Amino acid sequence: MSLKYNPKKIEKKWQTVWDxxxxxxxxxxxxxxxxxxxxxxxxxxxxxxxxxxLRPYIGMDIIARKRRMEGYNVLFPIGWDAxxxxxxxxxxxxxxxxxxxTKKNTDTFRKQMKSLGLSLDWGREINTTDPEYYKWTQxxxxxxxxxxxxxxxxxxxxxxxxxxxxxxxxxAAGGICERCGGxxxxxxxxQWMLRITKYAEELLEGLKEVDFIPEAKIQQENWIGKSxxxxxxxxxxxxPGQPDKKHFVDVFTTRPDTIFGATxxxxxPEIAQFWLDIGWQADESIRSFVKSAxxxxxxxAYEEVGKQGxxxxxxxxxPANKEKIPVWISEYVLFGYGTxxxxxxxxxxxxxxxxxxxxxxxxxxxxxxxxxxSIPRNAEDIAAGAKQELRIQSxxxxxxxxxxxxxxxxxxxxxxxxxxxxEFVNGKREIKYKLRDWVFSxxxxxxxPIPLVFCAAxxxxxxxxxxxxxxxxxxxxxxxxxxxxxxxxWVPLLEKDLPLKLPRVKKYExxxxxxxxxxSVEKWVNVKCPRCxxxxxxxxxxxxxxxxxxxxxxxxxxxxxxxxxxxxxxxKYWMQVDWYNGGMEHTVLHLLYSRFWNRFLSNQGQVxxxxxxxxxxxHGLILAEDGGKMSxxxxxxxxxxxxxxxxxADALRMYEMFLGPFDQAVAWSSRGILxxxxxxxxxxxxxQNTKLIINNKQQKENKKIEQLLHKTIKKVTEDIExxxxxxxxxxMMIFINEVTNNKQLITKNIWETFLKxxxxxxxxxxxxxxxxxxxxxxxxxxxxxxxxxPLTVDETFELIIQVNGKIKDKITVDMDIHEAEAxxxxxxxxxxxxxxxxxxxKRVIFVKGKLINLVV
Length: 856
Ligand code: ANZ
Ligand code: ZN
Hints:
The structure is a single chain. 38% of the residues lie in helices and 19% in strands. With 856 residues, the protein is of the alpha/beta class. Bound molecules: ligand ANZ and zinc ion (ZN). Ligand ANZ binds at residues 227, 252-255, 258, 333-334, 337-338, 340, 342-343, 345, 348-349.
């Protein structure tokens, strides 16, 4: 063993040993308790890993290592989420086949990750672009299809008319085509959709039983966006004064209690267009308003909704007070939410207020803020009341309170009035969700082919059959799945024909009609219908990026299974994922999609748990040194390879963890790593210095260092659980400082316990020093140290203070307090001051560990 710290040498050495002995391989059905640790598997880009990527990997590695030492059978897997646009665009640019680029990129990523000494089970490596993997993604899609959970619908996509290509949202940011810089339009395309909306309530409910960080739960809830409200019908007046029963507007409102304050109705431009389509004789000004509003909405550059409106010339009757109110067309009313029409209550809704102000519509207050209607009790309430008063004067009050100007409901509490008024106006209580169905197809190449064909013959046969006929037992239809009946002509491939492999193509660009490049591979496209044998065409769209990542955690459990996506017993043993860490940017979509996917499979009896993830945490971004986001285009990316070769993986690992609170964004600092390198060198030197480390029996243990050790165990143990890795590292630094600065002798036990604490953070260094102590075992198989509680607290006792022999006070002081300090503290006591009344102390009697007596 060399005296100098040589990370290169020891890192290589231990990585080889761990690999050879399969130290980190998870064992199916092992008797120990299982622990499934997961981080979001990377997309293997051509740029390789940068230091920001490593943060979650190292964090979860520390947790996985600690769990093994705590006696768990740990599953800590790795794979590649390798379908995606960058690789496809690279193929378009260079002509290099995506699977070749992917192979090269994953090789780089693997090498980089291995150099960090992560305790991953490499025997379970998966790749979403491997046909053996996507065979099951396709199989699962067919499960959705057969269960009636997939359907085709027209959806607006981002379309660049110059490049003639459909763009992903991230390629059309700000309404500008990423390729040519020109404006992006919306274009309707038939897309496969998954009915995630059917699961809205279940996905909300499921959140109650999981341990996710609050931000993750809140974001999911907001995305699902559940609103409990009422649909209320407003009759229209075609001839002034005469309600026409045939014409009406339905509005969705969450505030039926405010209906007496509804001073106008507003419909979305889409509804207006529909009226025009069915024969509404509107003025030219209205027609052109609708036309331009719709154009604006279709323009991808304007994601903000507009604030313009126009009066239709039509009036409606407010069913609550029978008053006549105008019907407007308003840009801020969305078509896709609620009924696509609203009742405008400017006194109690901010958007309605703005609109009413702009177009001089009347404002009618119907709610008295709750606080104002009660008598203010204290200054704070008065201030709050005054603030509300101000708010009411300046705009509108959106809260609840007491109803006014509301007919027989006046005086009632608004919350209570909601449902009584709903009944009064014959409204229908309804629950709405913001969640939309999942657009599940892309007109691209580098994705999983959708395993369906379109058969004209089957289409003809099924087209005319109505929904009712599906349900009655119709022998001719018995063999058809719901998906086939609901999407006449679409026929699933047989399981034996999966995987449906991506064919090789010459050109990777979508066709100029916006079809996938697969559409031009005639040989691949033309097939026989699996059901009737007639000529059919394959679906040429592929699945979105989210598909493969929606179930990868299941495949890790049984990655080589050829008969099923995973063995049921193995799923039962390993699921749920015990701890899933990932980026905040994936808290909404990936987390929701994969929860949905798992829940669907669970309802199908394919997976044993409803919720896939027991616990979810998040890491903050590592920013570039300048505080900006690390990105290749900005040229501020820090590559870990140079750092590993210069300072060693352990110094890099420790620095990544030391950098700052794990869940917050922190800026990289190139000099910072010197600190953790210095720390590891000190650890190394102590490990070499046999004079410092003494035999347990050689000398009575040094109490102070022993106490510090136990405090360190406690701190590191608790901090790892809280992902407070930075403070765990600093606790270890404090320990090492104490040993080196004060030349403390430490026993063998103390030193070896410290090495165990260090192991999750700097595994190579710890393992080498462990071996240096003469051990033949590996640290991964040692147990995690436990602390003795009494040793973690500084010892104190109750000092009795007497004045002239009489007890005046008791104070808590350090066990080893000396006389001068005891006297000082005694004189600070108010009770003692009272007793002394300024008289000088003549004599002090101090009994160590017991009392102090001041004689005056
Ligand atoms: C009258 C009202 C009075 C409203 C009031 C609010 C406050 P959430 O909670 O997000 O579901 N709304 C309904 N459909 C809409 C659409 N298609 N486009 C734009 N706005 C729409 O919001 C429900 C509220 O959003 C509804 O309740 C409606 O305004 C508006 F003091 O109705 B409310
Ligand atoms: Zn057919």
